[in-house]
Amino acid sequence: MKIDEVISATRLGVGLFELADRGLLEVRGEDRVRWLDGMISQDVQALEDSKDDSGFYALLLTNRGAIVADLHVGRIGDAYYLESLRSEIPGIREALERFIIADDVVVSDVSDERPAIGLEGPKAAELLARVSSPRIAALGHECWAETSIAGCSVLVAAFGFSGETAFQIRPHAGDRDTVEAAIGESGNSSDWGSLAPGSVEALETMRVEAGIAKLGSELDGDVLPPEARLERAISTSKGCYVGQEIVARLRARGQVNHLLVGLRLDASALPAAEAVLSFGGRVTGELTSVTCSPTAGMIALGYVRREHAEIDTVVEFDGGRATVSALPFVEVGSG
Question: What pTM was computed for the model?
Answer without folding.
Answer: 0.96
